[in-house]
Every structure is written in C-alpha cells, then in structure tokens.
Amino acid sequence: MKNKKYLYTTGQFAKLNGVNKRTLHYYDEIGLFSPEFKGENGYRYYTCFQTVQLELILILRKIGLSIEEIIRYQQRPSGASFAELIEERKALIDKSIRELLNTKAFLEQKSKKLSLSLTAREGEIKTVTLPEQRILLSAPITGSYDDDDFAVAGDFSLRLKSLFGLYDNFGSRISVEKILAGNYADYDCFFAYGREDTEIYDTVRPAGTYLRVFCVGGWNKLETVYHNILIFADKNQIELVGYSYEEGLNEMSLQSRDDYITMITVGIKTANNSR
Predict the structure, then answer these.
(1) Do 248 and 137 share a structural domain?
(2) Are residues 132 and 259 in the same domain?
(3) How many domains, in total, are found in the chain?
(4) Are residues 53 and 121 in the same domain?
(5) pLDDT confidence of residue 87
(6) At what angle do helices 67-75 and 51-62 cross, to 10 degrees?
(7) Is the distance from CB of 263 to CB of 249 less than 8 angstroms?
(8) How many Å separate Cα 183 from the centre of its chain?
(9) N or C: where does the chain have the smaller number of CB atoms within 10 Å of the terminal CB?
(10) How confident is the model at residue 165, as a pLDDT?
(11) Cross-strand pairs, 38
C-alpha cells in the first residue's frame, strides 16, 4: 500500500496518541472522529495528519466540553465562535491554575510547620537567621479574645480567603515594648504570611536574626515562656526589638490541647539587624 508508513490501524493510532482503542471506536460510531483512509483491503486507516485533530478533541474534553458540544461545533464550524469558546475556556483554566497554586502554597506552608513541630524542643531558646517576610495584618485587637477580637479574626479570615482562595490559620503579633512591660497577652493584631507571587501585603518582617522558642501546651504557658526569654536576653546582653510573632504549628495533628505547639519568634538587635 502506497505511503503505508503514514497510515495507522486503530490499535496503532490509539497507541500513538495514548488513548484506548475503544475510545476511537466510540468516536467513530457517533461521528465525532473517524478514520480518513480506506485501503485496498477494505480496512480503514487513520493518517498521520489526523493526530492534530484528535489532540484538539482530547484537549476540549479535558477542559470540560461535552462530546455533544464538540459535535455541534463540528457541524457548524465558525472561527469567531471557536475563538470565543477558547477564550472562555482559557479563563477557566487560568482560574484552575490559580486555585491549584493556592492549594500548593497552602500545603507547602503546612508541611514546613509540621517539620518544625517534629523537631521542636520545649523551652529551648535559640537564634535563627530569617529572610525578609511579607506580612498581612488584621485590624487591631485587645488580646482579651472577646467578641470584638473574634469579629476581627472573622474579618481577617475572610480577607485571607479572598486573597488566596483558602481559609487558613493565622498567628498573633505583640510588640516587644509590651513584652518588656510584662503585658504578655496585650496583642496588637493577628498576622499571616504574604505570598511571593503577589504584591498584596501590609508590612515586612525584616531579614535578620531572631530568637525562637517553642511552647508546648495551652496558651496559659506563654507567660512563663516570655519570662524565660527576658531572662535569656538579659543574661546574654541581647536587646529585643520589633515584634514577637506567635503561630501554631500542629493544628492538623493534635490529639490533645496539651500537645499544641506554639512557635514564638522575637526580633533582636544585632550589628546588622537594628530594626
């Protein structure tokens, strides 16, 4: 048969395009996509030029078009209507990509926090060097966690949902001035980490050196932790500056509130880190 190497049986064409033979038989039966060439032996063959047509059909199916919609377009082909269809589906794909990226970022953050929780040693105070971090802030809170603070938390949660497409946990921020004054529960606001792929953020946690300590158990233990931080800073002649950031690490894997791990990160002043 002339040009036989450019012709494919159903099985060969299915393998070439990564589809099932039954799919090609079905498409042929309903008139969606059929073999183009009939050989001298009476068999029908697909040609190499049909791969693009099948690819388009498969892509249209992937982006949500029904077989009936594709057949209707084939029966009344129009460049304008097809362009409109493509733009509509591109918008849906872009939306899906954003949602997947948001989900990926969400899971990556959870993974990092979980890794930190697995290596956390209660009460150990150490210095860490951190890169600049974009921060999102809520409206001011009192730290009493009354109805007003819960209302702020609700609004902040909705803001994060509108920005990132997902609800997520967030932490609390308190100024060093309040810690030095012994007002360990007088929080300024809630905070969440901004994303590198967006310019939407409220402030920046500067790059530099920080004290980090983990508290295991209920929030009532935080006062003792801050007291120990002040003792550590005084003993080592370290000046605390800026803010302390508190965030839970293991909300997704708690068996008891006594297992709750809070990570506390407090700014300190160094030669290269004056804040």
Answers:
(1) yes
(2) yes
(3) 2
(4) no
(5) 86
(6) 130
(7) yes
(8) 35
(9) N
(10) 76
(11) 44
CB 35 within 8 A of CB 49: no
CATH of residue 67: 1.10.1660.10
- Give the pair of three-digit tokens for residue 119: 């290596």
Ramachandran region of residue 145, left (φ > 0), alpha (ψ -120 to 50) or beta?
A: left
Check residue 159 and give left, alpha or beta (phi > 0: left; psi -120 to 50: alpha): alpha
10 Å CB burial of residue 228 (0-12, 13-18, 19+) is middle
Below-70 pLDDT ranges, the chain: 1-4, 77-79, 252-256, 271-275
Helix (H, G, I), strand (E, B) or coil at 178: helix
Q: 193-233 pLDDT, tens per residue?
A: 987 777 889 999 999 999 999 998 888 899 999 999 999 99
Q: For residue 212, which of 133, 143, 136, 121 has the smallest C-alpha distance?
A: 121
Helix pair 51-62, 10-17: axis angle to 10 deg: 50
How many other CB atoms sit within 10 Å of the CB of residue 218? 11
pLDDT tens for residues 102-123?
A: 788 778 877 887 778 878 888 8
Domain that holds residue 190: 112-268
Same domain for 135 and 223, yes or no, is yes
Please tell me the total number of residues recorded for the chain in this structure. 275
CB 190 within 8 A of CB 169: no
Strand ranges (E), the chain? 7-8, 37-38, 44-47, 126-130, 133-137, 171-175, 189-193, 203-205, 208-216, 239-248, 261-269
Token pair 């982006």: residue: 63
| Residue with token string 């590198």 | 196
Strands (E), 105-254: 126-130, 133-137, 171-175, 189-193, 203-205, 208-216, 239-248
